[in-house]
Write a structure and sequence with these properties.
Elements: H1 2-35, H2 38-58, H3 62-88, H4 98-115
């Protein structure tokens, strides 16, 4: 199970790096001329949070496992909400049912996090 947490930490650091690169490209193209530095502060806070949780998962800390579990819960909720809204108001050609699959995959990470006793 330790390898699972370390792998999720590395994956979260890769996601944070992609988020930082994507944010820099977006901020300099769209946000910076119009709103100056207000957009940079919010994006920087999200990136720092993802980096902190990724490093915490690499070091097997309980607070990082809890934060990762909460992130999985939020992402799973957003996926199931999209699937439910898509089933109530269907759009031809839209694959809203994938939200149910996404929810089940993301929630499996949360169950592994809650059921593990290997974090310190």
């Amino acid at each position: 199970m330790r390898d699972f947490f370390r792998a999720m930490g590395i994956l979260l650091l890769v996601v944070a790096a992609g988020f930082v690169v994507g944010s820099i490209i977006t901020v300099f193209r769209y946000v910076l001329p119009a709103h100056e530095f207000r957009g940079i502060i919010g994006l920087g806070g999200i990136a720092l949070f993802l980096i902190a949780v990724g490093v915490g998962l690499l070091k097997l800390k309980k607070w990082a496992a809890l934060a990762f579990s909460i992130l999985c819960l939020i992402w799973g909720f957003l996926g199931i909400r999209q699937a439910i809204e898509g089933s109530i108001h269907p759009v031809p050609g839209s694959a809203d049912w994938l939200g149910f699959v996404f929810h089940s995959e993301v929630e499996s990470f949360e169950v592994k996090t809650i059921g593990s006793r290997e974090t310190r």
